[in-house]
Structure formats: C-alpha cells, structure tokens
UniProtKB/TrEMBL annotation:
Gene3D superfamilies: Transferase(Phosphotransferase) domain 1. It comes from Evansella alkalicola. This is AarF/ABC1/UbiB kinase family protein. Pfam families: ABC1 (PF03109). GO terms for molecular function: kinase activity. Keywords: Kinase, Membrane, Transferase, Transmembrane, Transmembrane helix. The keyword Transferase applies. Residues 114-443 form the Protein kinase domain. It comes from the Bacteria. Belongs to the protein kinase superfamily. ADCK protein kinase family. The chain crosses the membrane at residues 12-29, 504-523.
Length: 539
C-alpha cells in the first residue's frame, strides 16, 4: 500500500470528507441550481477517486461497490467512479511467504515443487501466484494480502465516523438514503470476500451445479491446502472473450460461444441459488476447445426460492395487468420503502405499462441510464443488494455477449436456449411470460434491460402528474369548504333579513346562498371525480 500508516489513512479520508461536507453546506445555503449540484457531485466524485488511488487497498473495493449503487448516489458522483479498477501493486514476496508458511504450518517445500515469486494478479484483498504441487499439477494460489485485516478495521472505522456525522449533521440530498444500511451492506460484502473458505464453498457449489453441463469448466479446488487466507485452485489457461484476434482463430464460432454463455448464465439469473456477480472478461474465459471457463467466485449473489417465486409473480402480474399483485410482489422482494403508497404505485405501474413500443425506437443509452438513476432516486424504491448484484451480473454478461453477436442475431441465439431451459422447468408461469414476450414487437429484437431504460423518464413524469393531482385536489377541497361557509353566512343573512324585514339584506343573502350552493355542488362533484386519484388515507 502506498500509505501504510493508520493515522495517515484515517486523516486523509476524514479531511476529504470534511471538505466535501463544507461544499455541501455551502451549496445548500446558497440554494444552488440542479445543474450546479450536478457539477459539484462530479467534483466530489473526482476527489473521491483520487483519494482512493492514493490510498489504494480496501478503499478501491469500497469505491467499486459504491459505483453500482446508482439507486442511492448522485449521477455525477457515480460517473467519476464507475470504471475503478481493483489493481494494486503486489506485496513483498517475503510477506506472502510468511503467510503461506503460517497457514500451512511448515516450509513451502512440504507442499510445493516450486512457486513463481511474481504475482500473476494483484487486487486489494488477494494476490494470485502460480505454483506446482508435489504431484506435478499446476495450481493458482490466492493469498490474502498481509495486514489487510488491520487496514479494513481502520478504513471501516473511518467510514463509520463519516457516515455518523453525515447522517446527523450534513444536509445530503434525497439520493443519500439509508446510509447505515449502505454501510452494513458494504461491510458484509467485503467481510465475505475476506474469508476464502466462503469462496471455496461457492466454487464447490458451481462445480456441482455444472458438473453435467458440457462446455463449462470450473477449476478444481484443493481443500486440504485451502484456509481462510489461502485458496488453492487448478490452474486454467484460457482466452479472454474480448480478445478478438484469438477468438477468431478458434474452431468454435462467435454465435456458438454466445449460446454457451447464455446457457451458463441464464439458469443463474432465473433459478434459486448462487450466481456469479462479477463475470467480467478476466473472470470468464474460453479454452482452445471452445469451453467456457469461470473463475473468481469471491463476489457471488444468491436468490432464494421465495425470491424466484415472487420475481416470477411480478412479471406475470405486470403482463396480466394485475397491478395490486405486482405491488405486493415488489414489497415482498424488498424494492419498496415503507413510505411507498400502494395505491399510488399501482397507478404508476398501470400508466407505465400502457407505453407504446414505438416510443422506444430512438434511444441514447447513456442518457437512459441517467434517467433510470433519477427515477430510482425520485420514487420510494431502493434496490436490495442481491438484485444490484444480479443486475450487475446481467449487464456485464450482456456486454460480453453483444461483443460476439449482433442485435439481430441475439434473438436467434437466445430463443432456443430459453426454450430448452423452459422445457426443463415444468413451470407454466415462465411459459406464459415467454409467449407473451414473443408476441410483442418490442421484444422481436431482444435488447435485454436496455429496452426498459426509457421508462424511468415516463415514471418521473407520472410522479409530477401525481403531485399536481394532489395539489389540485387540495384546491377543490378548499373551495368547497369556503363555499359551504359562505352558504351558511347566506342562510344566516336570510334569517336576519326576514326577522328585520330588511329587503336589501334578504335579497343579497338569497343571492349569496344560491350562488354558493351552486358552487358547492359543482366542487363537490369535482372532488368526487378526483377522489379516485387520491391515496386511501385521503378517501
């Protein structure tokens, strides 16, 4: 690490946070425009990025995890950190050797014939070395970075101070919601990656899952040599799917490779169990024989049977326009915050699903992604971590598949894979969903989740409409109340005019009473008409 002193690490991070807080206070007091706030968050993101690169280590991992939480953080900030690479200089070999000797309880010669002292890969938590076992097999040894536990304690202690201060004293925008939950999620994810025995278990799970699947290779794991700080795996040579020159020389064509990738990842996304949450080009390789090789199971997500059931129910209810059931499914899946009003969400979903496919023909993907972020922040929605990882897995793999086949060919590649998977499920819900998708022009060319990225702009518009409806309803209620009071005044005037036999008071009071009664009934009708738009608690 460039900065090993705990005090220096903590002081640099805290000073960065203090400067950021001062800027936020100043912008809040100055009542800056939305454009100015966007520029500020870009500056803050740039400062945050530079600090991460200066300190390296765990903070880069934190930055990577924050970069996929567009549902919680401003767009300008996200843009500055979304391409962080978790690559840091390797540790001194002597430190790595001491870790191996301590964990194995003896000299390296007892387990290895040889080991290359230069790291093959080096990240913030672990480093990978190539070695040969006593039986002559070549292995990859993943070793936890020395002193990483101490660094983690320092960094998380610093983050907890920052989050506590921000939560109590800083006027953060709406995007920064549930800071404590975000901190807890970051801590859980990173602590999981620190325990290599958990990664070993994940690797064994995927081995079992794909043991009968042809064209897929998962490295063997040597459990007897693996510990919480060391993971020993079969060494696997492969080609990156982004290496076009090497891919073009394989006997397997690109369409077949895309088909195999979908066969590997589709069950992970749709079935209960673990899924690979970080399938970038360095973790998904292809052998010379065209087999898909999966590596690095440190970051995985898990979908429970209940999640899978409610996810299917969500899609089915949207397609069948059963919006109360859709909102119920969103609630059970953990997408809706406590303040979300079910009736309002039902109306938003109903209007959302009435969109015209022709509206989505022209799409600016970057603008659409920003619109999605804005929508998620504006609505009472917070994406659970497991689904953030699922989306990350889907979008990352989509990018790899799209580099192998065109959009026109993607549908022809996806359809047989999905239909083959469907036949094995014996699940009528998925059949219903697939045949509905087949009948829609929007899905003739499958463009995955990107086809839906235009919808957030419509949802934001619907939210504004909902606010205007509530404002208009309040006006109608006030008019109705005032006219009722005026009518009472007119009736009192009629009584007074009759009692005093004063014709002017009597005539004016009758006029006021008649006009106010007519107005009262008109606005009563309008209020009744608008009642269908209001929340249940207002009815």
């Amino acid at each position: 690490m460039k900065t090993k002193s705990k005090f220096k690490r903590m002081s640099k991070v805290l000073s960065m946070a203090f400067i950021i807080f001062i800027q936020i206070y100043w912008y809040k007091l100055s009542k800056k425009s939305a454009a100015d706030w966007e520029k500020l968050w870009e500056k803050i993101g740039g400062r945050f990025r530079r600090t991460l690169f200066d300190l390296e280590g765990l903070l880069i991992k934190v930055g990577q995890l924050l970069s996929i939480r567009a549902d919680l953080l401003p767009n300008g900030f996200i843009r500055q950190i979304q391409d962080l690479t978790d690559q840091v200089p390797p540790s001194e070999w002597e430190e790595i050797e001491r870790t191996l000797i301590t964990e194995w309880g003896g000299p390296l010669e007892n387990s290895l014939i040889s080991i290359e002292k230069k790291a093959v890969a080096s990240a913030s938590i672990g480093e990978v070395y190539k070695a040969i076992l006593k039986d002559g097999k070549t292995v990859a040894i993943k070793v936890q970075r020395p002193n990483i536990q101490s660094i983690i304690q320092t960094d998380f202690r610093t983050l907890s101070i920052i989050i506590w201060f921000a939560h109590h004293f800083v006027p953060l925008p709406k995007g920064f919601i549930n800071l404590k939950v975000l901190y807890k999620e970051l801590k859980e994810v990173i602590e999981r990656e620190l325990d290599f025995s958990l990664e070993k278990n994940s690797l064994l799970f995927f081995q079992e899952r794909f043991k009968d699947t042809e064209g897929v290779k998962i490295p063997d794991v040597y459990s007897e040599l693996s510990t919480e700080k060391i993971l020993v795996m079969e060494w696997m040579n492969g080609i990156k799917l982004t290496d076009e020159a090497s891919i073009s020389q394989l006997e397997t064509n690109k369409s077949e490779l895309a088909k195999r990738l979908i066969e590997v990842f589709l069950p992970q996304w749709l079935e209960p169990g673990m899924f690979h949450a970080d399938p970038h080009s360095g973790n998904v390789l292809v052998s010379k024989e065209g087999e898909i090789i999966l590596l690095d199971f440190g970051m995985v997500g898990e979908i429970s049977k209940k999640d899978a059931t409610y996810f299917q129910a969500l899609i089915e209810s949207l397609l069948s326009k059963n919006y109360p059931k859709a909102v119920e499914s969103l609630t059970y899946l953990g997408f809706l915050l406590p303040e979300a009003d079910p009736r309002t969400m039902e109306r938003l979903l109903a209007e959302l699903m009435s969109f015209q496919p022709a509206d989505l023909k022209e799409m600016d993907l970057i603008a659409l992604k920003l619109e999605l972020n804005d929508m998620i922040q504006a609505l009472p929605i917070q994406v659970p971590t497991r689904f953030v990882f699922l989306g990350r897995s889907f979008i990352t793999m989509e990018g790899i598949v799209m580099s192998l086949v065109s959009e026109d060919d993607l549908h022809h590649v996806l359809k047989p894979v999905f239909m083959n998977w469907l036949r094995k499920q014996e699940n009528n819900k998925w059949s219903f969903i697939w045949f509905w998708l087949q009948s829609q022009p929007l899905f003739k060319t499958v463009h995955s989740f990107n086809e839906f990225l235009k919808l957030p702009q419509k949802l934001e518009s619907l939210k504004e409409i909902e606010q205007r409806r509530q404002f208009q309803f309040t006006i109608y209620e006030n008019y109705k109340k005032n006219l009722f009071q005026l009518n009472l005044l007119g009736i009192l005037g009629i009584g007074l005019g009759t009692f005093t036999n004063h014709q002017l008071i009597l005539q004016l009071s009758i006029g006021v009473s008649v006009i106010s009664s007519i107005g009262y009934f008109i606005y009563s009708y309008k209020v009744k008409k608008w009642m269908k738009y209001m929340h249940e608690q207002r009815r």
